[in-house]
Task: structure prediction
Amino acid sequence: MKNYDVIVVGAATAGSYFARKLAENGASVLVIDSQPEEKVGTKYDIFHVGRGDFDKFSLPWPEKGKDYAFEFESTNVCSAFGNHPKFSPGPVVGMHMHDYTLRLNRWAKDAGAEIKYEAKFTECIFDEKGKIVGVKYKKGGRNYEVYAKLVADCSGIPAVVRTSLPESYGVETFKIDPTDMFYVVLRYIHFKNPEDKLELLSWPFYKTWEAPQHNPDGAIFGIGANLSYDVCEKVYKEFEAAVKLPEYEVDYFERGFTPYRRPPYSMVSDSFIALGDAACITKPSCGEGVTAAMVQMDVALEVILPLLKSGRPLNRFNLWLFNKKYYEAQGADFANQMAVLVGAVASSAEENEYLFENDLIFSTKNMIAMGEGGIPNFTPAEIAEMAKGFLKGVTSGKLRMSTLTAMLKAVANGAKICSHYKKFPVNPADYKAWCDKADEIWKQCGKMADMVSE
Ligand SMILES: Cc1cc2nc3c(=O)[nH]c(=O)nc-3n(C[C@H](O)[C@H](O)[C@H](O)COP(=O)(O)OP(=O)(O)OC[C@H]3O[C@@H](n4cnc5c(N)ncnc54)[C@H](O)[C@@H]3O)c2cc1C
Result:
């Protein structure tokens, strides 16, 4: 019978990072992934990580000619008709997902973690009291059992461990459905006219962007939407009708989805933790999840490593503090953004134009704060200036009163949900009352998907 400190289910970005950090701190770790090694991290090709995140999370650098694809320094964010660009800084590194995931796999192994590919989690093993003590997995047609003090679900959107648990286990077992996902379509293109060059732009009204790809003469035209790929295509047509793009040909498409919902209120229970996409940890402003999950995992490690070192059990009670620390570190701000963004998408294309033109909502200050996962703090003078701009918009007929009301309501909801998350209970006994209140506030917030018509 093989025993580990931690079994990690899923060997992609979240699973590899968590395994590495545990192993380099002396924990024994087994990672299992249902995919063969040559398929891990192949769900799409190019992904972005902020350059500063390599130092922040001590990540290994990609190599030119291998997993490294490109770097860029900043983008410009444009209005619904392609005007009034706002500078959005943020040096970014583009990498090939499969090759970089393999690099993270090796990085975890170098620290002592064991990785088994083509090893599919099938179910948890429980003791006589109903607590997780290990997992069963299938590999090469045979069934195996392994035991551990903690099972980490890093299996992405299917959340295979979390969704397999009994309802009464202490974590929500919901499946992530289409209204809770952000669908992404990437067009890998080349320009027809060789004089046309890549521009680093995005158009939040359509949730579209133009970004580099590995071919320096090409670009990626990306779009994201709630509900379905069909919605992406419908909005992409509106985008192409409103914003003049250089002539291009599509070389190929990539499609994928990312969670767009609140995480389970508690992400831990007895010998269990949900991480990364399995816990719906993505940035609400863009759906990116790789480094958002690293913030979550660093907080988890602060709680888990001392427990492992002291030999105390990794039960729900001892792991509980992780929830609170996570919401303080990032989760409360993400909840705020998620609520505020419902209001930000309430405007028409013409209203969006007015907001851009007058630095309302879509200002450089906002872009920076949202990109960092938060909400900007405005000075009283800035608030007064914005109030004047909104008033002028309404009186001139450029902004509907209903749009302004929706935006103000969203900001108020954001502040409410953020403050509630910051009061996540220290004592699990107070959890039920906290969840009831959170449910009530989220209901008032509504969902981004409610604003979308198919
Ligand atoms: C088109 C697109 C572009 C994106 N771009 C970016 C970006 O630029 N930057 C960014 O930060 N984020 C981006 N994201 C989001 C990001 O891809 C995800 O947040 C991130 O990959 C999630 O990583 P993860 O390790 O949690 O899950 P996953 O990458 O989904 O990995 C889960 C792993 O679990 C394994 N698994 C599943 N079931 C089982 C089982 N039964 N047994 C064993 N193993 C199992 C899978 O094989 C897989 O390897 C993008 C998403 C999409 C769709």
User: Anything to note?
Assistant: The two ends are 52 Å apart (CA to CA). The domain at 2-176+262-319 is CATH 3.50.50.60 (FAD/NAD(P)-binding domain). The chain has twelve helices and 16 strands.
